[in-house]
Amino acid sequence: MSDCVFCKIANKEMGKLVYEDETVAAFDDLNPQAPVHVLIVPKRHIARISDVANGEDATLMGHILVVANEIARERGITENGYRIVVNCNEDAGQSVWHVHFHLLGGRKMNWPPG
Q1: Residues 8, 26: Cα–Cα separation, whole Å
Q2: Which are the contacts of 99, defined by CB distance < 8 A and separation ≥ 6?
Q3: Distance of CA 16 to the CA centre of its chain
């Protein structure tokens, strides 16, 4: 989508990527909620996680988790732990209409999250 900020970042039209492959891009969150706060997005525009509907999408979502694990190792948060969050729709806190996984770590996380 031409007006989607995450599509623009994934296409390197703006921002700086910390990870990229053929299907996924990752970048540091501009408003970090933890010492490590990376957003991981599919390069293909999918508005919300509830739109994931087929095997190709499921494979892509699994790949994002593998990428999250790799970034967590690179950022040194694997041993102490980290959180992966996906918000779906407004009541859950989604504010950008492009599926994105938040990788959060580097501090003790509280539960329930909010």
Answers
A1: 12
A2: 41, 42, 46, 47, 48, 49, 51, 52, 86
A3: 14
* Selected catalytic residue, list 37, 98, 100, 102: 100
Q: Which residues contact 27 (CB under 8 A, 6 or more apart)?
A: 9, 15, 16, 17, 18, 38, 39
- Going from N- to C-terminal start, the domains of the chain cover 5-105
- Is the dihedral angle over the CA atoms 22, 23, 28, 34 positive or is it negative? negative
Please answer whether residues 26 and 38 qualify as being in contact, where contact means their C-beta atoms are separated by less than 8 angstroms.
Answer: yes
Phi, psi at 70, each rounded to 5°: -65, -45
Q: Identify whether 98 is a catalytic site residue.
A: no
Cα–Cα dist 60/66, whole Å: 10
Domain over 5-105 is classified CATH 3.30.428.10? yes
pLDDT digits (tens, 9 = 90+) for 20-59: 999 999 999 999 999 999 999 999 999 999 999 888 999 9
